[in-house]
User: What shape does this take?
Amino acid sequence: MTYFEAAILGLIQGIFMFVPVSSTAHLVLAQHFMIGRGSEMPPPESASMILFDLVVHIGTLVSIAIVFRRSLSGLLRATWSETRAVLHREGEPARLGPFSKLMLMGVITVGVTGVLGLLLKRSFEAVFGSPQILMVTLSVTALLLFMTDRLGRRPLGVKDIGPRMAVIIGIAQALALIPGISRSGITIIAGLFSGLKRRWAAEYSFLVAIPTILAAGLLQAIEVIGTDSTEAVGTGPMIVGFTVAAISGTFALRLVLVLLYRAQLKFFSVYLLCLVALIGFGVLDGLL
Assistant: This one.
């Protein structure tokens, strides 16, 4: 993989990571396009390219840290304060504070995603080699995005997130391992349909993204490190992809939050349906 190819893929990841149209699907399409035009990069379904995809995903975690730095730092400080208060109470029953409870719900969500992801990992990876399957998954994402804009006012706040909602969002996040299902989109959608207000559905989605993507990247790295497959991409291109994804992701995240709060996700729905039509009518056949 060349540095230019890595930069292009990092830009695609940064833009589409938070725009709810599936960054993985666009990475797969771009990789097939580059390979079809003579690139020597490994196929999208190979272990080394899946690792590259995870590296640029981790790059966008930097974007989350920048945009939500106040919320994240406040959550960590409050959780630590609540934990210290519980430890210093002698002879009293331990009770979780609201921030500690939120952290626990996040652990449940990530745990559910992790279990399902490990069980279905091989099945999901097979989709990377078949762009046509993206038609179904992209269509599902488009339909769900359109439906969310038609939802009424959501009544629940972040303190109302309980085990049931955490499990539902964890299952939704596991489905995002399939190319064409947007991780940010499907988890925000799950939160909205569970009753969460738009702001908290978004913030919870991006909160659980951090440990989820880090864990997935670590597992994939363990699988390919020490094998010849890592040489097919190279450390340099991975660093370039990571950096570009982090920078472009920051701008994309700010944009999607504005549109989400204004219930304007239907624009992305239209975009996805146009992309499905291009694939379905064979317009992209010569490119993939």
